[in-house]
Write a structure and sequence with these properties.
Structural class: mainly beta
Number of helices: 0
Distance between the termini: 40 Å
Order of helices and strands: EEEEEEEEEEE
């Protein structure tokens, strides 16, 4: 089992940047496919990006392509989400999640970090 803690959220103006971090404990993050999700008020949680265990392959939702980059440092047991050119519609609670490579669903979730983009 792994515990996940997100950090790095905050208030930023449109066009600005933030880097979210997800620190894992309990089990090495290298054992899992890692993902970022977000949930805006009144909306369902949506996929943002994911990264394979080695970090060789990444996948991003269309909403973040060209602006968001997911990365990982397995030695530091940490996953990152670099967000550039932020827009007000990126405002949401961002969650880090982990799943086994053979699983479809993410089994472990962090508590989330708030990102607010002002216009």
């Amino acid at each position: 089992q792994v515990q996940l803690v997100e950090s790095g959220g905050g208030l930023v103006q449109a066009g600005g940047a933030l880097r979210l971090s997800c620190a894992a404990s309990g089990r090495t993050v290298g054992s899992y496919v890692m993902g970022w999700f977000r949930q805006a008020p009144g909306k369902e949680r949506e996929f943002v990006a994911s990264i394979t265990r080695s970090g060789r392959d990444t996948y991003s939702a269309d909403s973040g392509k060209g602006r968001f980059t997911i990365s990982r440092d397995n030695a530091k047991n940490t996953v990152y989400l670099q967000m550039n050119s932020l827009k007000p519609e990126d405002t949401a609670v961002y969650y880090c999640a982990a799943r086994y490579v053979t699983a479809v669903n993410y089994a472990y979730w962090g508590q989330g970090t708030q990102v607010t983009v002002s216009s």
